[in-house]
Model the fold of this input.
Amino acid sequence: MAATAAAVLALSFVAVPAGAVEFSPTPPYVHDTERVERIAAALREDPLFVDIDSAGGLSAAETARIRAALDDQPVPVYAVVVRSSPEDESGGDGDLFLHALHHVMDEDGVYLRIEVPWSRSAEYQGFYTDLAVLGVSLSSYDIKSAADGPPYDVAGIVAVLEEVRTAPEAPVRDELPRAVQRQEEREDEASANPTNPLATGDFWGGLLVIGPLVGALLYGAALLLAFLVRLGLRTAGISLRPPDPRDLDLPAVLRARRRAPRRPSRRTLTALLHTELRALAKAVETASPDTDRERIRTAYDFANLTATTPGASPENLVGAIVVARNGRALTDPDCPPRLPGACMVNPLHGSAPPDSGKHPIPRLGRLAPICAHCLARQGHLASRVLMLDKKPHFATDTVWVTTRYGETVPDLARYALKELDV
Ligand SMILES: [Zn+2]
Done:
């Protein structure tokens, strides 16, 4: 809801490269929240915070102009005038700082960080800024195009705040700090690379048996083959991300998605459910007569009832998305009648591949099936857990959690219809 959303805008003096920042992949991201908590407490009283060591950097008139630009915003907007350094809690990464502040504030909105220079001269007046649009339905693209620009004077900052005021509505995006995104992309790259045979015991065992020359030839051939395969796939425009070959045994609609919302609002989930319903209706039209029409209809009915129930819980919306996808899988005549459960890290990822076993899930406290992408990222799953109303999706013992989204029952849609009495 826009009414509960807040915007925080921050300006920074020096854009410090974030490569060396030490951070946690999960909120609050920074290792020390003392300063962030102090700033959050002040922001709850006043949407403009000027830190003591920046106070001389802005005149009273300039402060008043920024304050006026914060008024009458469609969403809460917070501006923080604060310095950053490589030694601070975010290692000078303004984006990470704003995400930490958002977490501590526990309020969605637009957060702006403003960094004033130590000495403002006639030639150098500029402020650096970081902007984060967090959990609010504004198009961050238009705003960010301005905020990521060159250093601003106060008129520039006021213009950025004006862009916040007039930004078009857009679906709420699930934003991670850029440093965390970059880290995840690096990990994805690493897991997509074929295994280096030198790193496995089999290679050295092979060397002892077959002899060093043959071993070296095999290693060279393996490297060449891996190179050619990757080159060929890249040339063909195919992404080299087979997270787990067992994923291919699932009907396409149930396979692991690389990206799925992690902290979706009810509105995002409702929109996703409607998309799934439309896709299911379309698949039914073209489905062969051999499919289990009765079962597909039950899946559609449940998903449709949930989509049209005012105030449906986020848990039921997620469950209905899984049910709708199951229904679509069943329109494929080759689909096995017994469908797997959805990924317990985030059911929106997709289903667990057949025979992939159960695995530890952060904060769940027991083993459960997970999707192919999560299988490939074990040990890094904490930041991938689906959060609903700021809690893990498995925090309450819903019908979805007890059945592990269908793993323990033969027909999830029928079971949910009966249990939830919708
Ligand atoms: Zn998963």
Remarks:
- The two ends are 26 Å apart (CA to CA).
- The chain has three domains: 2-179, 193-240, 252-420.
- Residues 193-240 form one domain.
